[in-house]
Amino acid sequence: MKKITLKLLALFFPIQLLLIYILKQNPFWVEEFYSRKVFLFVSQVQHYLTSWIPFSIGDLFYSALVLIILFWIINLFRRKPTSNYRTGRFRKLRTRFLEAVAFLSLLYFLFHLFWGFNYYRLPLHQSLGISTYYTKEELHEFACDLIQKTNTLHSELVSHDSLKVEFEFTQNQLQQSVFEAYKRSENEDLQMPYRVENVKKSLFSLPLSYAGFSGYVNPFTNEAQYNYKIPKYKLPTTIAHEIGHQLGFSKENEANFIAAIITMEDENQFLRYSGLTFSLKYSLNDMYRKDPLLSEALIEELNPGVMKNYKEVQEFWQAYSGPVELIMETVYGNYLKVNNQPQGIESYNYVVALLVNYYQQKQTVKH
């Protein structure tokens, strides 16, 4: 019975690959039948099952997964010789290979059922009915608008323009503020019901820091984990980004866009400041690629205290930079490419196209 189950699971793996190929060609099916129906139900069940637990079940799941794989590998090489060593060895290797493919097939299925099919849904710009094209002039206008609003808000939050904004809140308070921002959101374009808060501090925050990650969503439990070591100034957009993933926007650029919208449009001044500077950073980076001199001129217009907030984050990541970060960038970049994000990590920058066109065609950034 066990062997039959293993064979069926192994056989199911290529069938899944074929199904994924078909779904990639038909994102409307995924949008209508999975993202807006099946996933909404599954994710709500996941939230109700795991949100009340104070620590990350997803982190423990990954830890157990690593231990299982290590135990399996050790067992593979700890077989005692038998009288018919070569034949027995071949049979064991064949069985182990079957186990590995079956296990991979099961994980692959659960990954897509619980969350992963969202990689193949309609691109967000199509759902919103906005363009992806924008000119340098439009980007310049958008960046100038963000600079003016950022400087104005910064002046309201500090006593002098040379001071950085201090986020004198606990991490739990900031976490709750972002949850409330999602509940308060009146944005009719996004329509993102987030009824149960399921955001937790990652047990792996130190490794995440060395790997260069602010957080992640576990697709098997749909818990959002954030790196509690990052500066508090970055927490609102980081948490909002991970909640965007929880809501089914699996692509990094789309989760960044949602994080920007939720925080920039909220009544909480600190969330709004985090969102404005978040969007501005992407806009200035994009402008630098198009026109370095103009980008530098725009940066000169920022209050010195705003630059200190940027520098605070930069210094944090520099303290943890090293070979691990480079390796993880390569691994994660390839992961994104496999999962329908051909630009890999560079797809993060595509958020500018969404922001510029959304606010140009839909509305203006909140004062």
Summed up:
67% of the residues lie in helices and 3% in strands. By secondary structure, it is mainly alpha-helical.
How many H/I helices? 15
Shape: globular
Our count of domains comes out at: 2
Main sheet record: 3 strands, mixed
Helicity level: 55-70%
Give the termini distance in whole angstroms.
Answer: 65 Å
Poorly predicted sequence stretches spanning 5 or more consecutive residues: 324-340
- By DSSP, the count of extended strands is 3
Secondary structural class: mainly alpha
Beta-strand portion reads: under 5%
The averaged pLDDT comes out at 86
Rg over C-alpha atoms, rounded to the nearest angstrom = 23 Å
Element order: H for helix, E for strand: HHHHHHHEHEEHHHHHHH
Placed side by side, the strands forming the largest sheet appear as 1-3-2
Structure overview:
The chain has helices spanning 2-24, 27-50, 57-76, 85-114, 124-128, 136-157, 171-184, 205-211, 235-246, 252-264, 269-290, 292-300, 304-320, 323-338, 351-361, and strands at 199-201, 215-218, 223-226. The protein contains 15 helices and 3 strands. The chain starts with a helix and ends in a 6-residue tail after the last helix. The chain is globular. The protein is mainly alpha-helical and 367 residues long. Strand 2 and strand 3 form a beta hairpin. The protein folds into 2 domains: 2-120, no CATH class; 124-361, no CATH class. The longest helix has 30 residues, at 85-114. Helices cover 67% and strands 3% of the residues. Helix 11 runs antiparallel to helix 12 (292-300). Strands 1-3-2 form a 3-stranded mixed sheet, sandwiched between helices. The relative contact order is 0.13.
